[in-house]
Amino acid sequence: MVPPSAKATSRSPQRSLLAVGVLLLCALALAPVLSLGWFAFDAGEGSRFDLGYGGTEQVLNTLALVALVGLLTAVLGTATGWLTARCAFPGRRWLRIAQLLPLATPSYLLAATWIDLGSRYGLRVHGFTPTLIVMVLSTYSYVFLLSTESFSVSGRRQLEACRSLGVGPWGSFWRVALPMALPAIGAGVALGGMEVVNELGAVQLLGVPTLSTGILNRWQQDGDPQGAVALALMALVIVALLVGAERNLRQRSRCWNLGNDGDADPQWRLVGQRRWLSQALCLLPPLITLGLPVIWAGLSWDQMRAEDTTELLALGSRSFGLALLAAALTVGGGLLLAIAKRWIPNAVLQRLTFISGLGYAIPGTVLALALMLIGGPLALAPLLLLVWGYSDRFLAVSKGGLDAALERIPPSVDEAATSLGNSWLGVLQRVHLPLLRGPLLVGGLLVFVDTVKELPLTFSLRPFDFDTLAVRVYQYASDERVGAALVPALLILALGILAAIALIPNLERLERN
User: Fold this and answer.
1) What burial letters (b/e) apply to 259-296, b meaning 16+ CB within 10 Å?
2) pLDDT score at 7
3) 267's torsion region: left (phi>0), alpha (psi -120 to 50) or beta?
4) Is the entire prediction scored with pTM above 0.85?
5) pLDDT tens digits, residue range 496-507?
6) Which residues, 6 or more positions from 4, have their beta carbon under 8 angstroms from its beta carbon?
7) Are 134 and 202 within 8 A, CB to CB?
8) What angle do CA 260, 266, 269 make, to 5 degrees?
9) Is the N or C terminus of the chain more exposed, i.e. has fewer CB atoms within 10 Å?
10) What spatial distance separates the first Cα and last Cα of the chain, rounded to whole Å?
11) How far lies 12's CA from each of 249, 340, 491, in Å?
12) Within 10 Å of residue 101's Cβ, how many Cβ atoms?
């Protein structure tokens, strides 16, 4: 029997290597934001915080979109979450799954679809209101996912008490369910707000100047990196507030999870007009976000024949190659951070692993500008910076699922494996990896699809004459070349549907609990 001191000594070099790997990964993840701060405070006093011409309008438009999109997504996401979690009506299960479909359609593709369909019937789709509608339909699923989880697992005894006292579904919703779900709803609104700040394609196509468009124009068109950095810092301030709110609200929402006591879920059966209205409300957003692009594809199919699609193979191979590389790097990095969080009980290291996963909150144009500030003096290749940006931005996508999966594995499993003489690598290979196979595959798939759909970062950092599917769809839509944009758009849409399908087991788990 190996004494505990000897086992700890034998594992210490491996844990030291693990800690070094985590520190290097955290340094790579945090370097872009640090470079922005260094560049801003190293600049001259007169140009440090100059927003430039149109900068104020871009900030105000961004804030207005964040506020209004947050309000409307809170209403729509909460309504669909409550109806599909706590009400019974025909088609509820399938309509609940359908709420994931809006995640399959990128906002720039939805905007391009609306613009072309509107032009066919003499309508001009342009300006703030269409942008607001597009962003609401593209982001309300974040609120739906978090609110339906809260409605499914929290407050069951209280809802049952409401039913026994004769309180109907509307009164139960306002008095019990909504107050308990507010933290989760707020977290979903914050996630949607981050997507609004990050958005580039839809706001460009619909003609609404925001911080993302301003950063790109000041940097690439005006040749004013200091002005671009000033706008980037404004975007980071907004994002930091959203991240802080999301983090705080998620922690508060955990207090309301009372678990499942084994009783049947209290559900209210809807009949008559309420049933039809509920079905329409749950069906309309997925039908618009997925149905309109499909209708657009059918109407535009004849235009595709007039376009040369020989370049599609090159575009697809570039997009898929970048996505595979980004998925491999982010899954590997996420696994490293998740294992370190479990195996190294160091407060500083734990904090660093959390901060390094915040890249998803940084807008793509901001991250691209920060990477160029690093890569320019070091003469790093644009393709290397692009892969770095993907890995930084989507690290949290893979890390989140792995963290949750590892939390479900009791520490006693690790202790039993080490007591049998297994090293840290042996426990990882024989215990953790087999149990994490599902989260690894799902995380890799989500990163793969997000990379293929990603536009701001790719458009800003891509090498010369190195377009991807997302960039080409945006360019073709800007030039009104509908036929050429059709096949790349359908490929992106199909991949988005695959990512939405990967999230279905989470809803099924909530249905069973």
Assistant:
1) eeeeeebbebebeeebbeebbeebbebbebbbebbeeb
2) 43
3) beta
4) no
5) 888 888 877 777
6) none
7) yes
8) 150
9) N
10) 42
11) 37, 13, 48
12) 19
Q: Between 469-478 and 312-343, two packed helices, what is the crossing angle to 10 degrees?
A: 130
Beta bridge pairs of residue 269? 88
Please say if the pLDDT value at position 9 is more than 60. no
Give the amino acid at 72.
L
- Please name the residues in contact with 279: beta carbons below 8 A apart, sequence gap of 6 or more: 89, 90, 91, 95
The predicted-structure confidence for 246-258, as pLDDT tens digits, reads as follows 777 766 655 444 4
- The residue type at 120: R
Residue found by looking up tokens 């009104």 in the block: 480
**Angle, CA of 449, 453 and 379, to the nearest 5°:** 105
CA nearest to 392, candidates 381, 380, 384, 403: 384
Range in 142-156, 166-180, 192-206, 449-463 the model is least confident about:
166-180
* Alpha carbons 223 and 1: distance in angstroms, whole number: 68
Enter the DSSP assignment of 99.
Answer: T
Q: Phi/psi at 70 (nearest 5 deg)?
A: -60, -45
Interatomic CA distance for residues 112 and 472, integer angstroms: 12
Structure tokens given for 512: 């069973």
How far is 343 from 362, CA to CA, in rounded Å? 28
| Interacting residues of 447 by C-beta distance below 8 A, sequence separation 6+ | 323, 326, 327, 330, 331, 394, 397, 398
The pLDDT of residue 257 is: 43
Q: Which residues pair with 88 in a beta bridge?
A: 269
**Contact between residue 95 and residue 282 where contact means Cβ atoms under 8 Å apart:** yes
Tokens of 76: 């729509």
The residue with greater pLDDT, 1 or 96, is: 96
Give yes or no for residue 40 having a pLDDT over 80. Answer: no
Q: How far apart are CA 133 and CA 128, in angstroms?
A: 9
CA distance 28 to 24: 6
- Spatial contact of 374 and 35, defined as CB atoms under 8 Å apart: yes
Q: How far apart are CA 217 and CA 203, in angstroms?
A: 13
Q: Show the tokens assigned to 355.
A: 């901060």
262-302 confidence digits (pLDDT tens): 454 557 788 888 889 999 999 999 999 988 888 888 888 77
Mean pLDDT throughout 150-164?
A: 65
Report how far residue 134's alpha carbon sits from residue 493's, in angstroms, rounded to the nearest whole number.
16
The Cα–Cα gap between 145 and 143 comes to 6
The separation between CA 154 and the C-alpha centre of its own chain, rounded to angstroms, equals 24
| Best-predicted range by mean pLDDT (18-32, 130-144, 292-306, 364-378) | 130-144
DSSP string, 466-495: ---HHHHHHHHHHTT-HHHHHHHHHHHHHH
- Residue 404: CB atoms within 10 A of its CB come to 11
Bridge partners, residue 268, by sequence: 87
